[in-house]
Amino acid sequence: MTPLLFDLGAHPGLSARLQALLGAERGELELRRFPDGECYLRLDTSPEDRAVILLCPLDRPDQRTLPMLFAAATCRELGAARVGLAAPYLAYMRQDIRFRPGEAVTSRTYASMLSEALDWLVTVDPHLHRYGSLDEIYRLPARSIAAAPALATWLRTEVEHPVLIGPDAESAQWVAEVAARIGAPWLVLEKARRGDRDVAVTVPDLDGHAGCTPVLLDDIVSTGGTMAAALAHLRQQGYAAPVCALVHAVFADEAEAKLRAAGAARIVSCNTVVHATNAVCVAELMADGIRDCLR
Ligand code: R5P
Fold first, then answer.
1. Terminal Cα distance for the chain, rounded
2. How do 29-33 and 39-43 pair as beta strands?
3. Whole-number Cα distances in Å, 158 to 147, 152, 154
4. Ligand 1 pocket member 226 (CB < 6 A)
5. How far is the CA of 172 from the centre of ligand 1 (A)?
6. How do residues 207-252 score in pLDDT, each as one tens digit?
7. Which domains does the chain have, with CATH numbers?
8. Which of 247, 224, 72 shows the shortest CA–CA distance to 144?
């Protein structure tokens, strides 16, 4: 049966392309806020006996998660055969340990809530640091799609002689994979985080890569602190203005302005979080994962 796709705030290009690739019917819904901030949701297309795909990036998660959960519950109540979540960006993955006594390990609680409400999950490059896979915290079939092939294609056509640089050790997994695909050299910097918005970065000797275009690559830019610190150090040491390539443009605060002020030549992101820097489409990659879940 033709799957039914409800779009709860994805990039329009991603949504349209996924719909076409999956041969899905677009579900109509009404979603708005009451004056007191609560949300009103109505499904205008019946989900009865349908395989439902909720397409919902989970940036600004405290605002987006409840409407998505309400949609999932309503689909189930109204007889959907299965309800899955295609979340191009999955939130609450970075709070994966109790650093100080009493802290909430929100990644676990968030995973429990979503696992209860849904039948499957497809996402793009979740921030897996201390967790080896989503299966450690999610109790539903969960697929992680790597954006590396799409980023590699963009870099191959847009940047001459790149050297890929990850701003911290955690970024090595993404940087190494993209570098391997385009046959480029890569390295990672050392980062010390001193607070939510305060990071220090150490830049190694890049002399062996003279003549290359530095490309800073990371999974997420949130406050921009990590990437801005890396940019500033590279610029201070006389390197060419770097390209900043990232998967998820979460961009809190004035992150984009911060990166530009720190010397970014260009900023590009995947269309997993709607942002003006979106230039890399992950629809084909996501469609493969969703098809597997729909089988
Ligand atoms: C952390 O390890 C991630 O890979 C990012 O480097 C980090 O979350 C970016 O955060 P911010 O932009 O706030 O420095």
1. 11
2. antiparallel
3. 17, 10, 6
4. yes
5. 13
6. 778 789 999 999 999 999 999 999 998 888 888 999 999 999 999 9
7. 4-146+282-294 (3.40.50.2020), 148-271 (3.40.50.2020)
8. 247
| Rounded distance between C-alpha atoms, residue 141 and residue 138, angstroms | 8
Q: Which of 56, 45, 52 is nearest to 22 (CA)?
A: 52
Could you identify the atom of ligand 1 that is nearest to the CA of residue 199? Answer: 14
Place of tokens 């999610």: 138
Q: For residue 198, what pLDDT is reported?
A: 73
Nearest to 54 by CA among 62, 43, 63, 39: 43
Q: Where are the alpha helices (DSSP H) in 100-171?
A: 106-117, 148-158
CA of 53 to the centre of ligand 1 (A): 29
Q: Which residues lie closer than 8 Å to 252 by C-beta, 6 or more apart?
A: 222, 223, 224
Question: Over the stretch 11-54, which tens digit does the pLDDT of each residue have?
Answer: 999 999 999 999 999 999 999 999 999 999 999 999 999 999 99
Note the pTM of the prediction, 2 decimals: 0.94
